[in-house]
Fold each of these.
Amino acid sequence: MTNEDFLKDSDQENTLNDLLSFDLCKELNKEALLKEDFSVDDFLKEIYKFHTLEDLQIKLKELLNSIENDIFTLIYNEYNSFFKVTCDILENENKIVDLSVRLSKFKDEVQEIYKVIQQNVVSMDQELSKKKELYRKKAIATNLLNVNMMIEDMENLLYKDSEKFDDADTIVLQQAAKSYISLRYYSSLIPSQHPFIEKRKEKIKTVQNNFFNCLASALHKYRKDASQIENLLRVLQIYREIDASAEACHQLSKIK
């Protein structure tokens, strides 16, 4: 065998090995076509050594169909996703609109209730003010009646001449003391400028002075008589109850 024959056989063997190792399905795929450095000329030169153009055309058509199917599937899936998202957005938007309408309606109802409550509060305040004023007037009227009753009680109890007290008069003085205390209390509940008080100011002063004169007369009488120690103590107790202990001391200092 000559060297030329050997080289020829060697080239055929290498070509056969390359042909057996070349897989058109493997080389002709989407990944290969999507490479950044993909060159159509280089690719065709490489393919052309092992396959005919008819084989390449068939494979390219298959690949094209596969790509079209993938594109259709991708678009379909993306469209479905987009449509679903759109439907969700519209549904949520409708819910938001419905909620907004309900909130607006609820707000209007709350405002109406608030107005009614405010009107009721104002009405209640007015009624309460009227009732307070009526109660105040009734209280003043009641206190005025009580003041007048205490004046009359003291006048009726102290009609006797203060110089003619006996043992029973300490009981009268005790009753008069209660009326005096009540008179002071009810008078304190009435404004001093009230017309009723203004008209009876002199009368009140007169019965109070008469009461203190009767107390002083009894104190002097019982202080001078050693047998009247119990009545003396009763009179001193009356002074203490009407918060006039200083007046009692003053009267005692005048007794010789």
Amino acid sequence: GRPDRLADASQTPGRGAAVGSHRRPLPRRARPIHADPDVARPDLPSQQQAAGPLTVEVVRGVDQLRDAILELRRAGHSIGFVPTTGLIHSGQLSLVQRARQTDGAVVVSNQADPAGAATEEERLLALVEREGVDVAFLPGHGTVDPPHVTRITVDGLTGRLEGASRPGYLDEVATTIMKLLHLVGPAHLYLGQKDGQRVVVIRRMLADLFVNVELVVCPVMRDPDGLAVSAANMGLSIEERHAATCLYAAISAAEAAYDSGERSAEVLRARMTERIGAEPLARVDYVTVADGESLAELSRLEGPALAMAAVWIGRVRLTDSVLLG
């Protein structure tokens, strides 16, 4: 396995298993399965009963997590870490599958919506059990999530686009992920490309703070019609669900134009805006073709760039992105 990555996680002495924690031999490997978009359905029956008692180790407190990580390190395994929030879906599970293929042990964190926490937790545990996750960190509200007294801001990156539409959101994301990395100390951190700005922010944060972890960015998991798999899709009506495909059509139009040799960012943005504008139910939040590192709006593409868009479909806000170059 790889050497310890973060001192905070790897050097904390164990305190023994807390009452009520789930312990099991560590780690194991699960047979990779194809991610299923239907996993995003909250009405799917729990697979926990069919699978028998849980073997994934469930931890809720910081001390419990440190103990679990220490066990993994003593066994000599590298750790792959997948942070998740809310209703888990096949896009997130595809990250788990990638981690399972690469690392000796996999840790998943989830911060659920308190309103449906009990039902969602049972479902989440059944799914991560199926994927062969070793440790599931399910912290209580306020343990690692906002509000943060100490906060990470990546100047120039967290205040624009998503940061402008949702002030403070990306600062909270960066701070929460940094706290989780200190606790888990993984060899690899797995994120999806769908949230392209988040990837740029986290990559810059890791570099600037000399965090010894490798960021692995995985492809977007999509439904057959191209819509990126997301828990937000559950809020769409049948008509809105069909309308939402304009988002994928928009970034695909930009990608196709780029692949055909177009390098004018203005033209690419116009292609995206045109596709979204053709859908009566869609309302543009933002459309951008930005530098792949600084997120500065481009006039002409001369290096890696990010085509991103956010749209409102009814009361649901959706985002998607694609790398160019």
